[in-house]
Amino acid sequence: MIKFLVSILLIALLSFVCGLFLPWWTIGVAAFVVSALIPLKPLHAFFAGFLAIFLLWGGLAFGIDQQNNSILSAKIAAILPLGGSVIALILVTAFVGALVGGGAAITGAFLKAAR
Amino acid sequence: MRIVPFLISLFLTTGLIICLNRQWGDLKKTPVLGSFLSPQHGFWQNAEAVGTDFSGSVTLPGLAGKGDVYFDEYLIPHVNANSEADACYIQGYLHAKFRLWQMEFQTFAASGRLSEVLGAGKDDSYLKYDRSMRRLGMVTAAQASLAEMEKDSNSKKDCDAYTAGVNAWISQLKESDLPLEYKLLNYKPEPWTNLKIALFIKYMAYDLAGGDNDFEMTNAKSFFSKEDFAKLYPAIQDSLDPIIPKGKRFLPPGFVPKAPATADSLYFNNPITVTDQELKPEKDNGSNNWAISGRKTLSHAPILCNDPHLSTNLPSIWYQMQIHTPDYNAYGVSFPGAPFIIIGFNDDCAWGITNAGRDVRDYYSIRFKDETRREYWFNGNWKPAVLRVDTIKIKGEAAFYDTVATTDLGPVMFDPTYTGYSDIASSRSYAVRWKAADTSNELSTFSRFQSIRNYNDYKEALQTFKCPGQNFVFADKAGEVAIRQEGIFPAKWKGQGLYVMPGEDSSYVWQDTIARDENPYMILDTAGDRGFVSSANQEPADSTYPYYLGSDFPIYRGLIINRILNNMNSITPADMMKMQTDNFDVFAEMARPLLLKNIDRSKLNDKATAWLNTFRQWNLINNPGEQGPVIFKYWWSQLLKEILDDEFSKTSLALHTPHESTVLEALLKDTAWSFIDNVNTPEKETLGQVVTGAFLKIVPKLQQDEKDDHITWAKNKDTWARHLLRLPALSRTHLPIGGGVHCINAAKQFHGPSWRMIVQLTSKTEAYGVYPGGQSGNPGSPYYDTFIDSWASGRYYPLWVMAQDEIKDKRVKWVMHFNK
Predict the structure, then answer these.
(1) Complex ipTM > 0.85
(2) β-strands B501-502, B361-366: how paired?
(3) Beta-carbon neighbour count of residue B568 at 10 Å?
(4) CB contact A29 to B (< 8 Å)
(5) Of these four, B79, B412, B696, B788, which has the most CB atoms within 10 Å of its CB?
(6) pTM attached to this predicted model
(7) Within an 8 Å CB–CB cutoff, is residue B180 touching chain A?
């Protein structure tokens, strides 16, 4: 359990740092590296990666949206199209990132298991 | 050993990333979803925190001295710079900081590069747009203008500084900082150049002086009899109230253009038709301006008003600012994409602009030797054409190569390889002669405007202004009030350029230009004059003006403006606010008696009678909640159909619909106007029949609109401040504003008063203004649409000309310091 939580924390942290300087998909690299270093069962690794990015992206988006009074998110949610639902936009944001994070993390776990 | 699951998950995850790292879709492409959604890279980064601190300090190489920018609560910058060049530098930086995407996009449009970022479009519409702009010669015109601008050391210095300012902003941008639209469309800004400034100015020239109806008129001339043609397209309108009041004595012309000997046979009576279809700017790009002598104002100081009518785009075409240097203190609106205040005032004078709308774009029929278009017949010889190949990049597709020939008469706009927006193949070729393609330095006029102190400075400043021809209204604190129609206009013989001209020899070229002193102007002097000058895109002078002016001018706004001003005294800025937002429909005032007199009430059922009563009782004011304007709009347009469609639909050729004023004046004069009769029926229809018939036809539509809550004027007209990409989500839709095309408050659906300004030139200037937008071009900023609601409801903001000692004023919200 501790390893699971540490993984989530590290993936989120490393992804955040990568995101400051590197392209968006480096969240995948971050999740892959962390789960290759910290051994978890593959399915657990998937959830760790998934949750880490879900929380990171969802949290960041939510925070930004709060500060912005949803001025922009309401417009983007109408373009994308999500019927103008800001919550849906935040969830989609979180989910898309989470899928990449989860996929990368399980790949890392399989690599670890392969050694 | 988990090699297989490893490979599978590696494959799936990489696949997912690849899928999220590209655009999807054919015509309308999705953003790159991965980066677009990433809160650290994508659109979330454009969600500007409410209460963002815009204060800061920037060090910019290339700045000559220090500069300070004080932002007020509306994010309007009050710039304090040490020199004109530094002011341009800082202005470039601010334009880029708040409006980068729009300013670059507009220059892409100007240079025919929309396909590069948007793809070819539905039915190749963007590609056609690009080919039109390039064939018209926008890029070569901008290059020529740039060369002229750079010959003037001041203009060059100012443009260099402005460009450096824009690039100082661009060069420090990270991916996450890019304006939202770049992320939506997946591209990046290029470095800014002086050429882009010239391109933007040419774009305005296209928008304001790029219109003509030469093809439609050529067709009409060939399709209608001489008598019918004269009835449908008369040279002058009876109710015209010109910019220069009737009765002014003009001197004989300095140059008398002579029609060629072949004009009758090869031009006026030559029954050719054209199927090619032009790209045209918005036809109602116009404006109102007027300036009132102190004799008619309460303060005894002149008042100047201006509201340019342009597309009500978001981000707005205007960016409001104050620019202070040791030489001048100017306030007003600027164009993101060019330096200086374009419409505004300084400590001594105020100036405003409306479009002259003169026809400066003409076509010549070109005979090429063969389809290679290498040689054309000119002055009795086969003359080599200059061929150039334009490479038009298209997003997601191979580039398109357009071979364009240029002749002595101008670039070839249409030929067998390009028919414009028409689908009909054509073997003919037409070269275009466009005044804006000539070299000029319009920027120098605005550079001088910043510091004009009196009428002579203003007149001097206008000496370099060539195209697009504009009506420049002027007033100063010494009490001088004037208007000048300025620009270089070709001196045309009567009817020249109304139709496509023969292009086989030089006899049909523009022979000379009208000398500047002969351009129509009016200076208020003392008692005896009417006490104001005004313009609203109507014909500048009546038929006593010694040059041919063409005949495509709207008249109604000019009528109502002059009527109101004639009847008004002790005028205050508050009166002017009421006047600029006046929704009275003078066209309806003139048309309604005709309609009411001729409708046969016995043919109406109860419902129809009720609608007629609503129309009859309407106060002729196009206010948002009125139903009268909707009934009138439907009735009049249906009446036009009843009267004209039977004749006009007998041909598939493109024809120009006659002006509303033409039809109305004809019907008022002659109730048996020949077009009233429906040529498809044996009986001879009367005016009463068509007026009644038209009304009966619109009743079901009115009933339906009432059901759909679409029957009140604002809802029916549906004015938007529309994003340049036409995305409703980024636009402000369904604005509750009245007015209309014939009202002073000329708000149409996507077009209208783009900046309302009132300046009273008392010793301390008192000015008001509002535009349908906001200072930030970022749809994620609270300042994206700041002024729109006030604009729609007719409210104004006092324009604060910040004084040097007001640094500590509580209206200053943020300060940016610029250091070298």
Answers:
(1) yes
(2) parallel
(3) 17
(4) no
(5) B412
(6) 0.96
(7) yes
